[in-house]
Amino acid sequence: MSLTTPVRGGCACGEIRYESSEQPLFTFLCHCLDCRRATGSAYAANVFFTPSAFKFTGPEPKSYATTGLSGMPLHHEFCGTCGSPVGTHSEAFTIIKGVRASSLDDPSGLKPIANLWNSSALAWETLDPDLLQFDTQPTEEEFGRIMASLD
Ligand SMILES: [Zn+2]
Ligand SMILES: [Zn+2]
Fold it and tell me: What is the pTM of this model?
């Protein structure tokens, strides 16, 4: 997976802008109810960056929190003006910073590696069988293996 760095993106109206000086770590397709509700879509393509390489370059997005599988808050970030979903950050997984793939200026170079929350996927969805498959989300151990396989 290779995008032009800095990788830039933002919301639909342009008020919220961000950039990452590094390539994304990985992209997951998440079929959980929270992602479906937050994006208004059948699933969310979520791109993850190294938090230290990532920053909002203008105003910070607004956010609300849901409770993740870990029991820890998962914050969903959106633009307060246009309402576009922009990103997520999980208090359980602070080593990654999530961004909604469609907020990237050019998401065409992304290559999703896994389907998450297949147990909540809608029956009319077609899941790509070539990706890693998770009924819910990777355990800490599985997550570690994914991180290790990146280099
Ligand atoms: Zn906006
Ligand atoms: Zn999700």
Answer: 0.93
